[in-house]
Each structure stands twice: as structure tokens, then as C-alpha cells.
């Protein structure tokens, strides 16, 4: 039985606004990000979501707290939904991290992980969803690595191509079906 997945990135952060690649650092939502998270909660209020799965990094947790706090939907935190660990480059300027990202598709960032490893980690979380949520509609709040894993698992797009491509944020998120 398949699972319907609604995916949205964490809301806008102070690091996003300043142009930094937060990676495994916690990050904090900006004022605009908090408004975006509230809008997410309104948008998803009657969306049939059975559970929300969230990266345990602070920016994702804060997004979920604002969007789903005080509601009867279970919010479950999973470290596997984290962004790529850029290691020593966590918190570096985004253009620097983006410039040589293809060098780290298969080779880990110094002190971190490769993009392939982060996609595989996120994909393991996706594979586990069916043990409890088969036939349900669930939401994921994560990062670029989470989107890459969803694209890789559902379409078969190669990790290299996903890392090489341009990510375009969608304000209303994405929908996937996991079989």
C-alpha cells in the first residue's frame, strides 16, 4: 500500500537571508520564516495529514512547532531527515559550498558526509514510513537533502544529477507517492 507524502522545506532562516549554508548547525527562523511557518500551518490545516515527520535540526523543529503546535497531529522528529553534513564547512557562505558541490557527490566533505550518503540517510527514513503509515497521507519537513532523496526514490533520478541541478523552492511544497 502506498503512502502520500507532502514535502515542504523548513521555513526561511536567518542564515538563508544572510547567504550561509547552515548544514548540520541548528539555524533559526527569521521573522519572515516564522510568518511562512504559520502560513504552512494554515495551508495544511484541512489537508488530511495523519502525521508530520521533521528533521531534528532546530530550524525544522521551529517550523513544525509554529505550523502544527497545539493540533492533534503527531509530530515525529527524525535525525535522518537532516541536511547534508558539510563538516568543517557547516555555516560557510552558500556560494562557496555550491561552487564545488559536485566534488562531494561521492567524497565526504572534510569532517562531514557526501551528498550520496545524505540522500541514502534520508531515503532510509522514507523506507521506514510504510511500517506504520501505509495508506496514509504524511508530511515531511526537511531540507534540500530530503528533497533530493524524495526525487531519487520516486523518480530514479541519479544523485549526481540532483546535486548538479538547480533547486527551485516551491512555496506550496511538493507531493509524492511512495509505493
UniProtKB/TrEMBL annotation:
Q: Which organism is it from?
A: Paractinoplanes ovalisporus
What Pfam family is a match for this entry? His_Phos_1
List each coiled-coil range: none
- Name of the protein described by the UniProt record: Histidine phosphatase family protein
- Keyword Calcium annotated: no
Keyword Transcription regulation in annotation: no
Which keywords does this chain's UniProt record carry?
Answer: Hydrolase
Amino acid at each position: 500500500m502506498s503512502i502520500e507524502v507532502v514535502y515542504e522545506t523548513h521555513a526561511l532562516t536567518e542564515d538563508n537571508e544572510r547567504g550561509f549554508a547552515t548544514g548540520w548547525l541548528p539555524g533559526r527562523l527569521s521573522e519572515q520564516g516564522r510568518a511562512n511557518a504559520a502560513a504552512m500551518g494554515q495551508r495544511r490545516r484541512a489537508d488530511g495529514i495523519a502525521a508530520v515527520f521533521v528533521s531534528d535540526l532546530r530550524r525544522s523543529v521551529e517550523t513544525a512547532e509554529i505550523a502544527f503546535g497545539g493540533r492533534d497531529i503527531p509530530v515525529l522528529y527524525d535525525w535522518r531527515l537532516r541536511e547534508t553534513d558539510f563538516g568543517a564547512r557547516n555555516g560557510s557562505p552558500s556560494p562557496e559550498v555550491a561552487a564545488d558541490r559536485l566534488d562531494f557527490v561521492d567524497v565526504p566533505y572534510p569532517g562531514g558526509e557526501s551528498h550520496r550518503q545524505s540522500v541514502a540517510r534520508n531515503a532510509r527514513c522514507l523506507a521506514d514510513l510504510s511500517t506504520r503509515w501505509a495508506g496514509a497521507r504524511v508530511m515531511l519537513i526537511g531540507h534540500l537533502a530530503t528533497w533530493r532523496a524524495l526525487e531519487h526514490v520516486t523518480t530514479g533520478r541519479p544523485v549526481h544529477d540532483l546535486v548538479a541541478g538547480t533547486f527551485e523552492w516551491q512555496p506550496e511544497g511538493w507531493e509524492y507517492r511512495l509505493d
